[in-house]
Design a protein that fits this description.
The structure is a single chain. This protein has 433 residues and is mainly alpha-helical. It has a five-stranded parallel beta sheet with strand order 2-3-1-4-5, with helices on both faces. The chain has one domain (2-429): Rossmann fold. Helix 2 (33-44) packs across helix 4, helix 11 (245-261) crosses helix 12 and helix 14 crosses helix 19 (420-429). It has helices spanning 10-20, 33-44, 56-68, 73-99, 122-129, 140-144, 181-195, 214-218, 225-229, 233-240, 245-261, 278-285, 297-313, 321-343, 357-362, 364-372, 380-392, 412-418, 420-429; strands spanning 111-114, 135-136, 266-270, 288-294, 352-356. It has 19 helices and five strands.
Length: 433
């Protein structure tokens, strides 16, 4: 298995080698805050990042990337373009918030938040729930660019809002013809397939399917995305010890924009990042219910470590599987501890619904029925829609993901040592999981 981590395409390695050999000519990509902001302002024609923009997270991240990540040339290029894109999203968001102040006056929809660890069926669960027409999810094309790149394409005044309900389906297309965001997302998917052919067996990406809303937090440069993509220990340490309220507050603003442009009845969101911050979500989101998938840690953890390794190979030639394990096994234990601590507080247990990974794979309707008991029960027409989606998107459609603990120099005992509180919690509350 280990050798497959190193099987990046020959053209990819060749470009990096040639490009790196020209650094003495000044071809090294700059990763500097002022340059990134200048590029974003030039692209958008906008200047205001918002009065609540804090540049410390970006400065911390850039310092860590430049000093620790050892990015190869393509990795530096992708990182620059991604950071410029995030700043551009923020510039466009502030434009819309100022032009349509009623957007932020809305109440955020109730939300079902999927908070399971990586590789526990969270993607499958969200994509199933996305089949419910009452649900608002963020497809990949939209989460990459939540703000339309053409500032005049959409009329966002209240009287032009399209309705969305089972009785009144949308009367206007969204996205509209001319919206470039789907083509941008499709290009990104194709590029990932070229750079890392084996990645799709781990996490299938589809421009039209829901994706993790952690990218909403990335706009504030406060999320665990960087440490899943590259070696940035100083940034990761700073982030873990920093109040992340500002990132969640801004995420709510972005969600209000998205529900304004395409209304529904309920949000269905997911990212393992939220495990660490269930308290912040409750504080800033309001009406929430947490869906928590569970899977054997001896299966889910090495699967995720494999995914991180594939991720990091896209950005650097210096990827150490053992270092990946050292960082993330501890981090996973910390995330689980935070979630369990919050759940065990008086009155909080009722806000969580537990999902069994094995049952989700073999009997998804049974697991969905547990969720819909809190929403009037699972209706036959919706059950049929869920089953149709499963037939069209079978498990392991993109191949079998192979991995093992040995790939990362760890044992089950290594994982057990970092996840004692979570294991005890399951034993005491849900020993059948």
């Amino acid at each position: 298995m280990k050798n497959s981590f190193r099987k990046s395409p020959g053209w990819f390695r060749g470009i990096n080698q040639v490009w790196g050999g020209t650094y003495f000519l000044g071809t090294n990509i700059r990763l500097e805050k002022d340059d990134l902001i200048r590029r974003a302002r030039k692209i958008t024609g906008l200047n205001d990042l918002g009065s609540d923009f804090n540049d410390e997270p970006l400065e911390r991240l850039l310092s860590s990337v430049n000093q620790e990540a050892e990015l190869h040339p393509i990795g530096r290029f992708i990182t620059r373009e991604r950071f410029v894109s995030l700043l551009s999203i923020r510039l466009r968001a502030e434009h819309y918030f100022k032009k349509h102040q009623q957007i932020l006056e809305q109440e955020l929809y109730p939300a079902w938040i999927i908070v399971g660890l990586q590789r526990t069926g969270t993607t499958k669960l969200q994509r199933l729930l996305a089949q419910d027409p009452d649900h608002r999810v963020i497809p990949s094309w939209e989460v990459i660019n939540p703000m339309p790149t053409d500032l005049d394409l959409y009329d966002l005044s209240p009287e032009t809002l399209l309705t969305r309900s089972p009785a009144h389906p949308p009367t206007s297309a969204y996205p509209k013809p001319g919206d470039k965001r789907i083509s941008i997302a499709n290009t990104s998917v194709k590029a990932l397939k070229f750079m890392s052919p084996g990645f799709f067996a781990i996490h299938p990406i589809d421009a039209m399917q829901p994706e993790e809303d952690i990218l909403m937090l990335d706009v504030s440069f406060m999320s665990t995305t960087p440490e899943a993509m590259m070696h940035v220990p100083s940034y990761a340490n700073w982030l873990e010890n920093t109040d992340q309220s500002a990132a969640y507050i801004y995420m709510v603003k972005l969600l209000k924009f998205l529900q304004w442009i395409r209304p529904a009845k309920r949000w269905v969101l997911k990212t393992p990042h939220h495990l660490e911050f269930t308290g912040l979500i409750e504080k800033h989101f309001g009406d929430v219910r947490f869906l928590w998938p569970h899977r054997s840690l001896n299966e889910s953890v090495p699967s995720f470590l494999s995914m991180v390794t594939y991720n990091r190979m896209i950005f650097s030639n210096h990827v150490d599987e053992r270092q990946v394990a050292e960082h993330w096994v501890r981090k996973i234990g910390y995330m689980l501890d935070q979630a369990v601590d919050h759940r065990l507080q008086p009155g909080n247990d009722a806000k969580f619904i537990d999902i069994r990974y094995k049952s989700l794979i073999t009997d998804s309707i049974g697991e969905l029925d547990k969720i819909y008991k809190f929403n009037g029960g699972l209706k036959p027409a919706l059950t049929e829609q869920f089953l149709r989606h499963e037939q069209e998107h079978p498990h392991q459609k993109h191949g079998v993901h192979q991995y093992s603990l040995e790939d990362f120099g760890i044992t089950g005992g290594t994982i057990d040592a970092c996840t004692k509180k979570y294991s005890e919690f399951l034993k005491n509350h849900y020993d059948s999981l």
